[in-house]
Amino acid sequence: MADTEIDLDLDFDDSQDPIWNPALLAIPMPGIRRMVNLAATLDDVIHLSIGQPDMPAPAHVVDAATEALQAGQTGYTMDAGLPELLEALAEYYAERYHRPLDPENFLITTGATEAIYLALTALSAPGREIILPDPSFMLYAPLIRMQGGSVYNVPLRQENRYQLDPDEVIAAMDRNTAAVVLNSPSNPTGTVYPRETVEAIVEEAAYRNIHVISDEVYDHLIYDGKTYPSVLGCCSDLDHVMVISSFSKTYSMAGMRVGWLVASQGAIRKLRRYHMFTTTVANTPCQWAGVAALRGGSEFVDSMLEEYSRRRDRLVELVAQTPGLRGYRPEGAFYMFPSLPEGVDGNDVALRLLRETGVCTIPGGTFGEGSTNALRISYSTSIDRIEEAFERIIPWMEKQDFT
Length: 403
Ligand SMILES: Cc1ncc(COP(=O)(O)O)c(C=O)c1O
Hints:
seven-stranded mixed β-sheet; three-stranded antiparallel β-sheet; 403 residues; Aspartate Aminotransferase, domain 1; Aspartate Aminotransferase, domain 2; binds pyridoxal-5'-phosphate; alpha/beta; single chain; globular; 2 domains
């Protein structure tokens, strides 16, 4: 979520003024913003709350954006995106998942956020239901509700390492279901769904004319040498899938705001028109930077992965030493979602932890109504800072009486 100086608490209260579209009430005050706003008023805060890579973007990517600006690439591109980027993406995906894809299967958006916005709001409507895992990334549910659609939550459980049970998803599908949202590796849990889960859901959804919207922004942050089961590698055709990703996490380009959506050519044609009436086109020089990222080899991603994998291992050890936190071994992204003792409210714990120790985490309830009993910890910060944070967290947790 973008940083802003606006007081969102006040802004949210204002949205109850009858002048505003009541649909805006579907947008809650984000738990992340509440924590980060409070942290900004405190000294010596350690952030375990960060949702973007903490390393600089590769030099050749930054150079490509600068060169594009200097070469006068400051106008609009074609509405679907810069042809060179569409071409590069089609080649990259075709090679990665061994399936033929054309540039016409892609739409370049302003970050994955715009692609999520287009996909969810194009499918959501009164009387329609969209299935979401709980917890999931906080953007999805409000966008569905803003269009009058409803959310059907499928609970994820810590004891199953937040794996999604495909049978529960299939059992939730009915004639009002318009779509299922998948996000693997997951924000906030770091869980990677195995191929069998993805295949079972994609197959059943296609059979019932339901779309699978797959948010794959962390598709390169997969640890332990595993192969990533993308929806694109698990579907027989693209008729019922929309796959979303971006450069934000893979190349540390979050502020450059370039993402995309992969779908059937028919769906892309429909969404192109919507995109033209939403953001027109994505940022032109940064689309050139995207071409350089895709064509620039895997050195940056490999070294980032190695670093995150080390941090993940250290975090798993530290959480295991912390009374009151139950952890597990996340397989992707840069988050862990340890649970608290039963009945304990993560909101209360996160606020007190921040005020009393200066460590900023995100309360679980930010990611779903059924997920209040947890904290999201991001390890997108150095091992030294993670260790320093736990030197504060462990003694604080030892003093808590959660009974
Ligand atoms: C699961 C997930 N999807 C989408 C996004 C947004 O990505 P982008 O910066 O490409 O808009 C994020 C950012 O935190 C995310 O965690």
